[in-house]
Design brief:
Helix 2 packs antiparallel against helix 5 and helix 3 packs antiparallel against helix 4. The protein has six helices and twelve strands. The protein folds into two domains: 151 residues, Elongation Factor Tu (Ef-tu), domain 3, CATH 2.40.30; 119 residues. Strands 1-8-11-10-9-12 form a six-stranded antiparallel β-barrel. The chain has 323 residues and is α+β, with helices and mostly antiparallel strands. 42% of the residues lie in helices and 27% in strands. The radius of gyration is 45 Å and the shape is rod-shaped.
């Protein structure tokens, strides 16, 4: 009987201890920042590195300069092709040169004189043939010369008209197409040339420079990696029984031991269940085996409060101290 009373007493004592258990209101977490990697689209050799690890750079700053020997060679080819295409198009539109036009006009004038002379000779022969003063053979020879002079004169007139008006519209369109194709090649080379300058896409801190001068940078390879200055957030792991005061949008107070417990206010942006133990952010989280763990993500209310915080440093979340 005494043994039964002893067991019941222990159970009552344990239950009273659980009922009087205090809810924990401080948790340790880690400062995090969104990471970013800067890559190149075109393979090349590292020519110059303009930043050092730990530097803070602004969007648009030049981080690195690459060498593209193949692009330089193709640039000369593309510009040469554009010059040739431009000349072909100009010739198609303008037609013959001034000297060619002078030659054709002189040729036209000479053939016109021959044509007019042959026409006069034919008229005289027509009068003579009527009076039977010449043979038919002689008349036919003059008539043939007249037709030849006439055809040559008409031909040079057409040739001069083409020279003055330019090439056929189809030829002009063909020359224009070649010109536009050459322009596209030059534009492509210009775009590739700009890729030699590796530019910071956002405000960031340079954490790692993965290549040295002279090394080959392959397309898509991470040249420089770092953290976004405006990407600071806070991660803390909390068991489900402690979540009653932690909802998205609520304000919480954080302190930083390495800054003599400096305090800032942060807003909870998300609360999500952790899928694996490896994602735990809080050191030695106090939870029971059957409990689920949740990751609480916070962001600072003031931008300047977060810029100088050290990534991966520890902070303390004080639950319920700020509403």
């Amino acid at each position: 009987m005494k043994k039964i009373i002893y067991i019941v007493g222990i159970a009552v004592l344990a239950q009273s201890c659980r009922n009087g258990e205090k809810v924990k209101n401080t948790f340790e977490g880690k400062i995090e920042r969104d990471q970013i990697s800067v890559t190149t689209k075109i393979p090349g050799k590292v020519h110059q590195i303009l930043v050092s690890e730990g530097a803070i750079v602004q969007a648009g700053d030049t981080l690195m300069i690459l060498e593209f020997p193949e692009v330089d060679a193709k640039s000369a080819q593309a510009k040469g092709a554009l010059d040739a295409a431009q000349a072909q198009y100009n010739m198609a539109v303008k037609g013959a040169t001034d000297n060619q036009l002078k030659q054709l006009r002189a040729k036209r004038d000479g053939l016109r004189e021959q044509y007019e002379f042959a026409q006069k000779s034919l008229k005289r022969m027509q009068n003579l043939i009527k009076d039977s003063l010449i043979a038919q053979q002689q008349y036919d020879e003059v008539y043939m010369k007249f037709q030849g002079a006439k055809n040559q004169y008409l031909a040079v007139q057409a040739e001069l008209a083409d020279a003055e008006n330019g090439a056929r519209i189809e030829q002009q369109h063909m020359a224009l197409g070649q010109k536009e194709r050459a322009l596209g090649a030059v534009s492509e080379i210009n775009v590739a040339t700009k890729e030699r300058y590796i530019i910071a896409p956002q405000n960031m801190t340079v954490e790692t420079i993965n290549l040295k001068v002279g090394e080959l940078a392959l397309a898509g390879y991470s040249l420089i990696s770092g953290y976004l200055i405006d990407g600071t957030y806070f991660r803390v792991t909390i068991p489900e029984k402690q979540l009653q005061n932690l909802t998205a949008g609520s304000k919480q107070e954080l302190s930083f031991p390495y800054l003599n417990n400096k305090k800032i206010t942060a807003e909870i942006v998300s609360v999500k269940a952790l899928s694996s133990y490896a994602n735990i952010a809080t050191a030695y989280p106090d939870f029971e085996q059957q409990e689920s763990l949740f990751e609480v993500k916070l962001k600072p209310m003031q931008r300047e409060d977060a810029q100088k915080l050290l990534t991966k440093a520890t902070f303390i979340l004080h639950i319920g101290t700020t509403k």
